[in-house]
UniProtKB/TrEMBL annotation, chain A:
Membrane topology field: Multi-pass membrane protein
Biased segments, Basic and acidic residues type: 326-335
PROSITE patterns: ABC_TM1
Name recorded for this polypeptide: ABC transporter permease
Domain of life (superkingdom): Bacteria
Membrane-spanning segments: 12-32, 106-130, 142-166, 178-198, 236-258, 278-301
Occurrences of domain ABC transmembrane type-1 (ranges): 100-301
UniProtKB/TrEMBL annotation, chain B:
Domain ABC transmembrane type-1 residues, every copy: 106-295
This protein's name: ABC transporter permease
Topology relative to the membrane: Multi-pass membrane protein
Iron recorded as keyword: no
Lineage summary: Bacteria, Bacillati, Actinomycetota, Actinomycetes, Micrococcales
């Protein structure tokens, strides 16, 4: 299979997955037995005025059959119309737009923290001169993976906001109030990366080239940064998709704990109000990002690691690329 | 890339080991009392993990035996007390004993995780088995289902299903179960694909065994060991996911004691009574750690047996 064929096939596959996911989410949210929209919007507890509620009901064409409803939703999607929130009556697109930037900033900062943690933990686990430090750093990711995100957040909140008063728990302090939620997200996300880095670093330090570098008098810091870490990061790249997924899903918890108003908060509120249209939009957005990141990882992997390039393109099975092949959770979570 | 071989190694070893049974001389360890052999190799941390799971089992089977108080009994004069001998985990805003609530919540949280794992394991491995064994379009359809389920991060996928099913412990459990189907399907599929190409399966075909016999007598018993260790892992995951869903308020309605909900209730008093969130949280962490520790024991036991 030529490189272009492989590329096209992989892109087509991703588009198909996104389309099928849309069908799946639509059917789960709107067409399961029971009446997901009417019972929720015509409800004494619903804050939306009766007229607006009636308009939203009419908008969703509940009198049509499932296939027609699906078709209407797809046409509207291509016109950029995502429907209306059943909980607030606001257009879904607006809710998403308002929350997206905030969550993106949070996830970005969390990713930076997570990478820093992962490298620090892996370096300690492999290189620390003390046995106890190596052992501790080796176990740390396992404990982090067993800790619920909300617990991390609440402990950080208790210690740094209430006990030490370094951060305000109520006031919005701009960048500063991003730090604790980002740390919360980073703890869980860094653990799998650290585990893969530890494995990679151990392997790299066992290679003969390290001995050669030492014999040549290359300083240890350069051996670590310029050679060992570089080699160890290649397998960690397969985790990139998983990491992005964890960041997006984890933001629901982090934003709930810290009362932030990003996409995660929108999701949390939407699930609480069983607000189908909002949940559908958020989940599809996440699924699209997640699928595209996985696609990108698969396509970039051969570019970064030339050894894989030969294998992937030569074997003729385009779908079995490294990221797709690796059952990351199985591999990573095993202590 | 070492990853794929790592997951497949135990199954291949198992397949060539006991099933053929032609080379008993190579295996000096007799499979008589595996539990005794296992117990001898346990370290201190392993014993702690086993002990902790034992306590949990007791808390599920007979919560009244461990808990000193009724988990729902309100005691107005005793609200928000710090941990003491009488109330090791303190008391909550209604004066209920927090430890008793954790103990009584064990059955609900662990039970929900068991339901979730059972759904994931059952549906997932069946799909994987069918996909790998029949191949062709069946495999294509199953693979697309797996792709769709994996295209949404697990916690979000379970939230979608919770929206469709409604709140409650059982619904949260079903949601988490559906969210973990794809993981099992993918693993089972790859395990079966490995086993069905081994010579003894081919021989069984040649002797004239029907495809059902081959599937259930030969392929399945030799491909499930990796799936079983995944089950233990996924069990830990399920506890975390169910705790997260119940923390967000999608699980059991309050006054019911459910671990995630206990943390969420304690959250309101985190400034004055941090133990109400931290101690139940630590119980969750210890549970997941113990499960992964014990499942690792069984895995290493399998590997040494081959």
């Amino acid at each position: 299979m030529s490189r272009t064929q492989f590329l096209l096939r992989r892109i087509g596959q991703s588009l198909l997955v996104i389309a099928l996911t849309y069908v799946f989410v639509f059917y789960v949210l709107f067409l399961l037995p029971g009446d997901p929209i009417e019972s929720r919007i015509v409800n004494p507890q619903n804050p939306i005025p009766a007229e607006q509620a009636a308009a939203i009901l009419a908008y969703y064409n509940l009198d049509r059959n499932g296939l027609e409803q699906f078709w209407i939703s797809v046409t509207r999607l291509f016109q950029g119309d995502l429907g209306f929130s059943l909980g607030t009556g606001r257009p879904v697109a607006e809710l998403i737009r308002d929350g997206f930037a905030e969550t993106l900033t949070l996830a970005g900062l969390a990713l930076v923290f997570a990478l820093a943690f992962a490298v620090a933990i892996a370096a300690t686990a492999v290189l620390a001169p003390w046995r106890w430090a190596r052992g501790l750093a080796d176990k740390l990711p396992v404990v982090a993976l067993a800790t619920p995100g909300f617990l991390v957040g609440l402990v950080l909140l208790q210690v740094f906001a209430y006990q030490l008063s370094w951060f305000s728990s109520i006031r919005d302090e701009g960048f500063k109030s991003l730090i604790l939620p980002a740390l919360t997200l980073a703890v869980g996300v860094s653990a799998p990366i650290a585990q893969v880095l530890i494995q990679g670093l151990r392997q790299a330090y066992g290679e003969p080239f390290v001995t050669v570098l030492r014999a040549k008098g290359v300083p240890e810091s350069r051996i670590f940064g310029g050679h060992a870490l570089k080699n160890a990061s290649i397998p960690a790249l397969t985790l990139f998709g998983l990491t992005v997924g964890e960041l997006l899903a984890g933001s629901v918890i982090a934003e709930a704990v810290f009362n932030r108003s990003g996409l995660g908060f929108v999701t949390e509120q939407a699930v609480r109000a069983q607000d189908g249209p909002v949940v559908q939009a958020v989940v599809m957005l996440v699924a699209i990002i997640f699928t595209l990141v996985n696609l990108l990882t698969d396509l970039l992997y051969p570019v970064i690691d030339k050894r894989i390039a030969a294998k992937t393109l030569g074997s003729g099975t385009g779908s079995r690329t490294p990221a797709a092949d690796l059952d990351t959770r199985q591999e990573v979570l095993t202590p | 890339m070492s990853q794929p071989t790592l997951t497949q190694a135990p199954a291949v070893g198992n397949a060539t080991g006991p099933e053929r049974g032609t080379t008993p001389a190579v295996r000096p360890r007799r499979p008589g009392r595996p539990l005794v052999a296992l117990a001898r190799r346990l370290g201190a941390a392993d014993w702690i993990a086993v002990g902790f799971l034992g306590i949990l089992l007791l808390a599920i089977a007979a919560p009244g035996l461990l808990a000193a108080y009724d988990p729902l009994e309100v005691s107005p004069g005793n609200t928000l007390q710090a941990p003491s001998l009488a109330h090791p985990f303190g008391t909550d805003y209604l004066g209920r004993d927090a430890l008793s609530r954790v103990i009584h919540g064990t059955g609900r949280t662990i039970g929900a995780s068991l339901v979730a794992v059972a759904i994931g394991l059952g549906a997932g491995s069946l799909l994987g088995l069918v996909a790998a064994y029949f191949g062709r379009w069946v495999d294509g359809v199953v693979s697309r289902i797996v792709d769709v389920l994996l295209s949404i991060p697990g916690l979000l996928l379970s939230m979608v299903i919770v929206v469709a099913l409604g709140f409650g412990t059982l619904n949260a459990a079903i949601a988490v179960g559906i969210a973990s189907v794809a993981t099992f399907t993918r693993l089972m599929r790859s395990e079966v694909l490995t086993v069905r190409n081994l010579p003894f399966v081919e021989s069984a075909h040649h002797i004239g065994a029907g495809s059902k016999t081959v599937l259930f007598r030969h392929v399945l018993p030799n491909s499930y060991s990796a799936v079983l260790s995944m089950t233990a892992l996924q069990f830990g995951h399920s506890i975390l996911w169910i705790a997260a869903l119940s923390f967000l308020g999608y699980g059991a309605p309050p006054p019911q004691p459910e671990w995630g909900l206990l943390v969420a209730e304690g959250r309101e008093y985190i400034v004055s009574s941090p133990w109400l969130t931290v101690l139940p949280g630590i119980v969750i962490v210890l549970t997941v750690l113990s499960i992964s520790r014990v499942s690792a024991l069984f895995r290493t036991n399998q590997e040494t047996k081959k």
